[in-house]
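ARCHIVE CARD
SHELF: 3
SLOT: left
DATA:
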Amino acid sequence: MTALDDLAPVPFHDADALQRSRMLSRLADTELAVALVREPSDDRIELRMFPLEGAQVALACDTEDRLAGFFGQPVAYAAMPGRVLAGLLRAEGAGLLVNPGHPSEMLLDAAMLDWLTGALAAAPEEAEARLRLTAPAPDVAQALSGPLGQRLADMRGLIAGAALVGVAGGQGHLLLIAGAPADRHAAIAKALAETLAFLPPQPGGVDISFSEPSPPPGALLFDLTPPQPEPETPKPPRPPILR
């Protein structure tokens, strides 16, 4: 089982919109092995395309072994993140078949790849910090806690924690990020904006802030402090050696 398989308790094409969005978000950050016509030459590659449902489709798997297993033998391939492959195929108007025969199998047509690359282009808008913060709306906290928790867990060690809060006056919500290095703010905000772009829109939207006010009571807190190593249990003294 791979990370994509773990997100597919039901097949992609039978899943609801939220599960499909989570799988596509994970696909964007997954390194895929995509089948080639021949071994790369001078950093140039030619994707191996297959006619499927009236369109040209590339084939990729999230492990090299899965790709070789599909063909029954080793095959020329290139490794690249899903977001990069989606951009290449979008430019060609082609589709993508991922992990055929596995729980996370998905067939993404050109329209779906166009939507995916658009979602990945999402960028956060800077929010003013001088707002009156409240607890998040319960339905928003429930909808975002799982996906945001998973994405923020990937940033453990880079940020100290995060909190989802509401903004008084019906102005939406803020995701407060604590302990992030200033030179990584843009990259972190971009990654989180992408995650939010794959989720159902929330009333008033969700902005990202690196100011560190004290979260209000009822805030949804994400604790990302690294776990403390468990102290070693002292070994009992050895019995004396009798001669």
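SLOT: right
DATA:
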Amino acid sequence: MFECGTCGKEFPAGPHARDNHCRSTGHDWPDFECDTCDRYFRSESARLQHMRDLGHFDQQDCESEVEWCSLQHCYFTAATHNDIKDHEVREHFFCRECDRLFDNYNNIKMHLNSRTHRGQSVKCPFCSVAYTTATGMTHHLECGACPRAQGLNRDEIYRIVRSKDPNGMISKKLITWPGESNVKYEATSRTWNGHGYECYLCNRAFSALHGLNAHLNSPAHQQALYHCPKRSCGSDFKTLAAIINHLESESCGATRFDTVQRRIGDIVTGNRLISF
């Protein structure tokens, strides 16, 4: 028996009579009514559970091959598999392929961007060694680890980026910057403070002298060369790998992980201007 949701009048002849009544009077259909039979429920989840159990979907739903969220007690539906996966990730922090739940959205996002799902698709343009992230490949070049591009380092990478970034989208305009890679620092045993070898710039102590020297010759105390392209973020970075990692993390929403991976080749090789 189909009822009007406003006046309660019953229509034994079927839903079409009830629908005509509602349209002509401006009355409402019952809340949470099954698309096929005359049952209606107190909540949308109860309605969806009933329709899911009995297959009571209308013809349009059947033709669109509705998919369901795979989590118990969730009755979300969508027309495409990708929409369902996106729902499971964003609402439940659930990876369907691994059948694994995560504590928060950031954790599952890191998981989905890891080697487990991404593989190693970012190749060095010089030696073709593959990396999972653009950050890994950039660090490989910036620290001079590429056997076919040993002349590249932090200074040279910055000069390449500046030549492709005339408007300063990610690079700072340091016109008189002389470079810092050729400057070497060497601490002595006099830096021992009784507990470790101490950096006089930041007071960090190291258990071994070579650890302090590695710290002094790293970008830790060098000038910031890059900035986030999103003005409201305002973050500065001392290496290209650091800003690429920031962008890949999507922490400020300046761009997407996939976009960074597609564009990283334009940053270190080729003639295209940098864009995100």
